[in-house]
Amino acid sequence: MAEPSSESAVVRVEHLSKHFGAGSARVDALRDISLEVFPGQVIGLMGPSGSGKTTLLNCIACILEPSSGRLTLDAEVVYDDRWLRADLRRLRLDKIGFIFQYPNLLPFLDATKNVAVVLDLAGFGLAASHSRAGELLDYLEVGQRRHAMPAQLSGGEAQRVAIARALANRPRIILADEPTAPLDSQRGRIVMDLLRRIAVEQRAAIIVVTHDEMILDRFDRIVRLRDGRLEDDGNAAKA
Amino acid sequence: MNLAYYDIKHNLLRFVLTNFGLSLLLGIVIMITGVYGGMIDDALKQARAANADLWVVEASTNGPFAESSRIPGDTRELVARVYGVERAGAVTYQSIQTELNGKPLRLFLIGFESGRPGGPHKLVAGRDILRDHYEIIVDRSARLRLGQEVPLGTRGHKFTVVGLTRDNVTSSGDPVAYVTLHDAQALQFEFAPPAQRREVARGGALQTSDQINAVVAKVSPYVPVAEVAAALTRWKHLTALTQAQQETLLSEFVIEKARKQQALIMALLVIVSAIIIALIVYTLTMDKVRSIATLKFIGAPDRTIIGLIVQQALSMGIFSFFAGLALVLIFLPYFPRRVVLDLTSVATVFAITIVVCLTASTLGIRLALKVDPAAALAAAG
């Protein structure tokens, strides 16, 4: 398990709140959340439905704008009390890899191009994009399916291609929303082992939203949320 | 990476079938443009076929095509003597309908004086009219053969086809035919035998058929045409129109209604095409909402998303335009009237298609830009 190193946190969430609606219709989805994730760490984000896991993940992924607090990703301030950085898509492209609950592969691109599209968007040349995509698919042991269309891939294969896409641009932060949900327990553990390996080898900070009790031993830390509040940031348990 | 190309390739059959329908619509737009071009070209050819500089017609008329004109048969001799006139020829014009092999045959009949202006310009088969009577030169669009006999007029005389011309039709599409002036005068001005007998019985004046519709004149290159026209107009019973005036009358006023109808049909077709293209682009974008959300999620800028939609709309327009053009060219020989497709009009339709595609794609673009990246997190795709 990775220990918090002397390196600074890749993800730093400080007193973050998020509410929807106003007045009597106001819903506080996140309340005063503070969290740090360091390079090489894999943390699990758990909690019952409606506890704010996905909202927190979306805020960190720069999909949702927080209502207050401060969010710093890889030493760059993204949000600071109503100030929101402008080029969020570019930030996502450069720094964040996202693994969806379902693979969400583009149905009109084969496995290689689904991975290469991220590199293409980042400005890499065609040859370089395809070469890196091929390497990643081999690394994730789906290289033999590189020319298959998403509809021809099994659930496990598609999820590995989606992981390859998330890793393509060597992001410092990898966010995963229930990545093992569509997989059987054995495949789920393989995916988690893979994420652990990536965290160590690429010095990436990985946050995984999950309900899966079978993979808890794969996390460095488990953060629990309830009613939008941080119930346990996992540090006490470690201590 | 061209996402539009891969999406089209992935759904190739749907793309081809959708565009086949659109190509039929654009083919009709191209066809109407060709019909319009043909109508103008035929009208101008009709005026230019006489190879004249001046048209001398009845006073205060815009004859002989825009309205009727009737002048004495000896007017040609008067015109020929005016200073500056090199050559002059008397002509008659009339629409005629006869029956051949049980089917109606419509012709635009021109009576001309052999060896003088007003006759057929160039023959593609056969010979010129050599006999004084009952020989006819006809455009090949009438589908008559050399040597075939055609009954014309109330007296039932049969005219033998001796020569054929090409692309010599009126603005309404009727084939042009040439006969001698005498035959044409008899066909146009003589009464049918029963009517003739009635006139004689009632003691009416002796009928003369020595009338013509116009005199066409070639003017010396050393004398201004306007000067000759002014001299001719001094005769109070005549009006002189220049070739340019005659072409304007034919290409603008005679076919004005038909032109407006075609312009209206074309405008409606362009609007229908725009709506169809917009709906297709919108539907294609709806099908890709999840992919667009995923692309936005992974960091694709708006220009990539807009490029995907615009490129697909343009591919659709370009593919359909050229498929439509190919269909028109394949079926051109079977079209009932002359279709003239010049580069300018084809390029104009192409430019309109591109503009329509770009405009129509805005609906899809609006939808795509509204897609929330968070939609990628929703249910399974």
What descriptive keywords fit this protein?
heterodimer, A: 239 residues, alpha/beta, Rossmann fold, 6-stranded mixed β-sheet, 5-stranded antiparallel β-sheet, 7 helices, 11 strands, 26% strand, B: 381 residues, alpha+beta, 2 domains, 10-stranded mixed β-sheet, two-stranded antiparallel sheet, 11 helices, 50% helix, elongated
Give, in order, the helices and strands of chain B.
HHEEHEEEEEEEHHEEHEHHHHH
Please, what is the CATH homologous superfamily of chain A? Answer: P-loop containing nucleotide triphosphate hydrolases
Would you tell me the overall average pLDDT of chain B?
87
Radius of gyration of chain B: 30 Å
Largest sheet of chain A: 6 strands, mixed
Could you say which overall geometry of chain A the principal axes of the C-alpha atoms support? globular
Query: pLDDT below 50 for ≥5 consecutive residues: which ranges of chain A?
Result: none
Q: How large is the count of helical segments of chain B?
A: 11
Strand content of chain A: 25-35%
Number of strands of chain B: 12
Q: What is the CATH topology of chain A?
A: Rossmann fold
Distance between the termini of chain A: 13 Å
Whole-angstrom Rg of chain A: 18 Å
Give the fraction of residues assigned to helices of chain A.
Answer: 25-40%
Number of domains of chain A: 1
Whole-Å distance between the termini of chain B?
Answer: 23 Å
Unreliable segments of chain B (pLDDT under 50, ≥5 consecutive)?
none
Q: What pattern of helices and strands is seen along the backbone of chain A? A: EEEHEEEHEHHHEHEEEH
Helix content of chain B: 40-55%
